[in-house]
Design brief:
2 domains, 1 helix, 29% helix, alpha+beta, 106 residues
Amino acid sequence: MTRAYLLKKLQPPMNLMLKICFFSFFSIFISNAFGQLPSTRFDRLYPPSAMRGTEVEVNVAGADLEGVKWMNFSHDALKAEPKKNEYGEIVANVFLLKVAGDAPIG
């Protein structure tokens, strides 16, 4: 048997092993690259209530609140937008909550 014959015979399994090693090595590192950002958690909202048809300034405190620019509510009658100072800059962790007049109680 010649050397060229042996190389051709061993080549396909070696290519397969190389591909498997390459894929498994990089899949470990790629999976870590797709980490999740921390989710925002509200620990305190003050004031805890508002009357229908009013606008209230709400202060929030919690974890991972950096850069929070909006709040999402389960009912369309509640809308919040970040409070802005006299220069038009967003005030951190303060929102203006608008409660519609037809908002349900509770």
